[in-house]
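User: Quick sanity check before I run a bigger batch. Here is a single chain. Can you write out its predicted 3D structure?
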Amino acid sequence: MAKRRGKSPRDTRRRPAHLEERERALIVTEGSKTEPDYFLRMIRELGLSTASVKITGDGGSAPISVVEFAESLLANDPDFEHVFLVFDRDRHTTYDTAIAKAETLRPRNAPRKQAVKAIPSIPSFEIWYRFHVTGERKPYSTGAGGGSPAQELIRDLKASHACFASYDKATCDAFFDEIRPMRDQACARADKALEEASKEGQPPFRENPSTRVHLVVRRLEKMARKQEAES
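Assistant: Done. Predicted structure follows.
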């Protein structure tokens, strides 16, 4: 009689019982401080745990490195229903490559309903903060003094509201609580910016300015509502 083949560690790996029916999300960011700090504060506010939402700012400093790092994480732990790859357009030369690779990223053993989404911001993540206080759609390019589009945006952000006057990329401690009530409005403005850009003929993922961070925010809010309903 043929010897029965033992299961590999990958075959036997299962979700802990208390997470068996709970959605999990993975957020991989380009920034090691700005984005992780924001999302960590948000999941604490929503009552989500780091077991349900894994946030890592170890994706490197280029869009393609974010996608490749996510790919390596998912090879070891594909058990996420939602995967968000958060990076900036700014001046990055690997932006288009990262968008294309993100759209095809699908780990072999991933849950069938897994969704991998590129979450770019043009020019940078700070446009998400700015949408909390204004719906202005000023496009960003290299400034007159040679500054990057992201630097131009940060200058505008600091001038747009008192809570951003001393903006520091390392933390959102100075303004998170103040802008929290404006989150729904920021989501609506982010949606509208994409819609208007499409009407103007701007290609997908080239809308300037724009962000898809609201897609992450809405998913986290939905996960929190579901968790509360099941508790």
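Residues 1-13 have pLDDT under 50 and may be disordered.

User: Great, the batch can go ahead then.
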